[in-house]
Amino acid sequence: MGFLLESLQHALRLILSFDAEVFRTVWTSLYTSTAAILIAAAVGVPAGTLLGLGRFAGRRVALTFLNTLMALPTVVVGLVLFGFFSRQGPLGFWGLLFTPLAMIVGQTVLATPIVANYTVAAVSGADPRIMNTALTLGAGRLLAIRQLLLETRFGIVAAIVAGFGRVIAEVGVAMMLGGNIRGYTRTMTTAIALETSKGEFAFGLALGIVLMAVALFVNLFLNLLQQR
Questions:
Q1: What are the backbone dihedrals phi and psi of residue 40, each rounded to the nearest 5 degrees, phi first?
Q2: Which of 33, 82, 123, 204 could be a cystine partner for 52, CB 3.0 to 4.6 Å?
Q3: Spatial distance between the Cα atoms of 154 and 151, rounded to a whole number of angstroms
Q4: Within a 10 A sphere around the Cβ of 68, how many other Cβ atoms?
Q5: Closest to 169 measured CA to CA, from 126, 218, 122
């Protein structure tokens, strides 16, 4: 028990003293995850809306494929993209491996199916009278879809939050594509794994506290949106 209390005190000192290493790692996590979720939202929300509203051949197959992608292990995504980005891979000439951009690509691949699937659920579960009323009042189809998305905005925001939670807490893609390079591609999760294995439990605990604080802030933000 004494070890845990001492580690907690040290962790809090690191956070409150604005330790440069801690906050550099936090910043890397935040900007890569934020960039990934913005791209995932730009792709996943329209795709989910199309699947939620569309009635076309192959829709059931597409939904099954989307559900399968939600369960993709992060290490598998990292492995496949590592093959593409490595020097021997087809995209090796871009020099993306072990860069923040490679991490963003991997995290986007992880988050997009989640955002799209939650969007499908939100759109499919919406009152069908929303679209019908908008069309009856003379709105075009795009304007009617916009109105539907406004009515289901809480579900859409929840989709984006779920995707963000997935990418900021993952380890496999960040480790394999970023290389866990200090001050460059080291994220909170990879640093926690590394520092704990080195015996720097307090440093890992400090990052764990910040990671939980980020998760709490995101959920509070979602609750405030729902109350409004």
A1: -60, -40
A2: 123
A3: 8
A4: 10
A5: 218
Is-contact 119 155, C-beta < 8 A? yes
Q: Which amino acid is at 178?
A: G
* 33, 172, 161, 67: CA torsion to nearest 10: 130
Whole-Å CA distances, 122 to 51, 129, 142, 156: 11, 15, 17, 7
Residue with tokens 């009635």: 55
Q: What is this structure's pTM?
A: 0.90
Tokens representing 148?
């539907």
Residue 114 near residue 158 (C-beta atoms within 8 A): no
Residue type, 125: G
Six-digit token string for 225: 């949106």
pLDDT in tens, 122-177: 888 776 777 667 777 767 777 877 888 888 888 898 899 999 989 998 998 999 99
Structure tokens, 198: 């080195």
Which domains are delineated in the chain? 32-180 (1.10.3720.10)
Q: ∠ CA(66), CA(48), CA(160), 5° rounding?
A: 95
CB 36 within 8 A of CB 108: yes
Q: Do the beta carbons of residue 47 and residue 41 sit within 8 Å?
A: no
**Exposed, middle or buried, 60 (CB in 10 Å: 0-12/13-18/19+)?**
exposed
Q: Residue for token digits 């871009």?
A: 94
